[in-house]
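Folded chain entry —
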Amino acid sequence: MFWSKAFIPTLKEAPQDAEAISHKLLFRAGMIRMLTSGVYIYLPLGLMVLDRIESIIREEMNAAGAQELLLSCIQPLELWKKTGRDEQLADIMIRFEDRRGRNLCLGPTHEEVITELVKNHVNSYRQLPVVLYQIQTKFRDEIRPRFGLIRACEFVMKDAYSFDRDQKGLEKNYEAMFTAYKNIFMRCGIKFLITEADSGVMGGSVSHEFMVPAQSGEDIVLFCKKCNFVKTLTEDKQENCPRCNTALEKKQTIEVGHVFQLGTKYSKALGANFLDEKGQQQTIIMGCYGIGVSRLISAIIEQNNDEDGIIWPREISPFDVLVLPVQSSNKEVMDLAKKYYSELVKKGAKVLLDDREGTAGVKFKDADLIGIPLRINIGEKNLQNGKVEISLRREKKINLVDKNKVVSEIMNLLKKGA
């Protein structure tokens, strides 16, 4: 993509109401815009990041044996009445009545809908286990939307559901999802903590949260530096680690994932049963596994930034490489920039070429702001000596490379995960 033809409206300053560093940088880097409180538009760069996160999630979920589907946003309220959650989640549910007088809601989550689907199509132990997932928009009427994508009224979630014949099967799928989650978050380039959690209105017994330490985090966990024990803060007092008696430290965190062993809460309420080997009716046992996909964008930025802007991890960045001709008016500089661009694209790299007219200062500031991991700086002075700069955004490291070896050097760096 050529920058001159792209829609990347960068800003020198963030809006005054932007609090979290991720919120400020997403605005300044031209990745999102707010339509109204808690509701955001993803601009092209932001959507590219969202797509890359979703791709990682799909790869890991598919590898763990889950199958993707897409459930409806609009849900009949009668399903929620069967589980009683129409009252439990009344404060955040967006409800309405259609022209036929049907009571509906915009789904804040999908346990009821997926259980109803499986109930109607699974009736024998031979059809179990089943693991289904979706990447879908959720709607919650948040009392206080804040921190941009961290707490929004409309957001993207990956929610998966396992259906098993017994507890042993549930535990096997739970472990598979647990491992997939660790893989996803490691590939997203974030440091995270895992803590046992309260299942809350979701129900069930065993539950774990995946928490990203960040200054803008609304959740607080207690962490042991010595043995890595983690627990959710329940009382505001100093505690020692139950494993090694070391004083626990408080950490602000963002919840990015939550997994639950639901058991039979939803299957009992909605009549999701199956016939076992003896022809006797049994209740399906369920698990639920959620990731805040859009929230993950903010969590990644909270841990990957500096005073100049975003520093995208390799697998998340909207582009792999930024080609920056310092003097766009110089034909030799621009011809070489376009040559690198074409060769890298042919080799499968995602490349942005900054072909805009303007000062070098503006180009370099924008480059740092949007955070692409690798940059090729082509300037008249170095080019006279047959050299070109390769810059690594995270390390702020610049290497002078022979102009004829730039493409091969970039491809080697990409293979190494630079």
Summary: The chain has a mean pLDDT of 94. The radius of gyration is 25 Å.
